[in-house]
Specification:
Layout (H helix, E strand, L loop, with lengths): L10 H10 L12 E11 L2 E9 L8 E7 L24 E5 L11 H15 L1 H4 L1 E11 L1 H11 L21 E5 L23 H6 L7 H6 L13 E6 L8 H13 L3 E6 L13 H16 L1
Parallel strand pairs: 3-4, 3-5, 5-6, 6-7, 7-8
Antiparallel strand pairs: 1-2, 2-4
Helix pairs in contact: 2-4
Length: 300
């Protein structure tokens, strides 16, 4: 197994980061270049948009990119909420926040296909947007963590490259940060929590369009753990050990599968952390800095 050290930044920088969150709505620094609702693909007349944020002092060099995929149980959430990753702008990254079809509109594999198309679109237009096509990182939380994990483990698998734009540019990413995302739907009830994941109306069942245990074959197709290969990019998993919505074991399972394949993988246990890291011992700034350090090592 490969290992990597992810150094934390200085205390002074941590406080500077903390102060930056009040600069604008969502903590967006003044002068940030924002392009809203860029259409990356159209499906049956339905435009799929993303928002692109670029630092004010970017200069002429192509920017590394963080592709943010929001959570919400695949049935809610919005690309407008980038507060989790907005600090990356001050560290010289562009951010693309992706809208994808939710389960009430289209069931699996639609959301995965949409996210893959967004990556291909951004790579196809990297020169236009001032991006470095060889330094794309993906970061998501909860359902978004699942989707970015799928991006990471299917880089060499064309199964979900169904949108036309994916035939024009690669949908691979070079690094993935998975915040408390599911990895094996059929094992989510292994530990007690506040959700019966096997129920017909669970987020996972709604995502695949049927009760997961009644349709194990389709459920397995939605599991990142089943696509792991040695060519997968570095992946950092961060998960609260008191998560009552997505059990901590979900990240343990994916981390173990990646280790077995020889992939560069790290699992960080967020002590006392609930879903969304509520009540965790780690501060929001410390959690952000661990992620920032990971991307600094893998994309810089």
């Amino acid at each position: 197994m490969k290992t990597r050290a992810y150094p934390l930044l200085s205390i002074a920088l941590l406080f500077a980061l903390a102060n930056s969150f009040g600069q604008n709505q969502n903590g967006i620094p003044e002068g940030t270049r924002i392009d809203k609702d860029i259409v990356y693909e159209t499906v049956n007349g339905r435009a799929l948009p993303l928002d692109l944020y670029r630092p004010a002092n970017a200069g002429d060099a192509p920017l590394p990119l963080i592709i943010w995929v929001h959570g919400g149980g695949w049935k809610g959430g919005s690309k407008d909420r980038i507060n989790r990753c907005v600090g990356m702008l001050e560290h010289g990254y562009a951010i693309a926040s992706v809208e994808y079809r939710l389960s009430g509109e289209a069931i699996f594999p639609a959301a995965v296909e949409d996210c893959k198309a967004a990556v291909s679109f951004l790579r196809l237009n990297a020169k236009k947007f001032g991006l470095d096509p060889d330094r794309f990182g993906a970061w998501g939380s909860s359902a978004g963590g699942h989707l970015v994990s799928m991006l990471g483990v299917t880089g060499d698998d064309s199964t979900f490259d169904t949108h036309p734009v994916t035939q024009k540019a690669s949908s691979k990413v070079q690094a993935v940060c998975n915040w408390f995302g599911p990895s094996d739907f059929l094992r989510m009830n292994d530990f007690p929590g506040k959700i019966d994941h096997n129920a017909a109306d669970s987020p996972e069942s709604r995502f695949i369009g049927a009760p997961i245990q009644d349709h194990p074959e389709q459920s397995q197709k939605a599991n990142p753990i089943n696509y792991v290969t040695a060519s997968d990019p570095p992946i950092l998993h961060m998960h609260g050990d008191d998560d009552q919505s997505v059990p901590f074991n979900q990240s343990e399972l994916l981390h173990a599968a990646l280790q077995e394949a020889g992939v560069d993988t790290e699992l960080y246990r967020v002590k006392n952390g609930g879903h969304g890291f509520r009540n965790s011992v780690d501060s929001p700034e410390a959690l952000f800095e661990r992620t920032n350090a990971f991307f600094a090592q893998t994309l810089r």
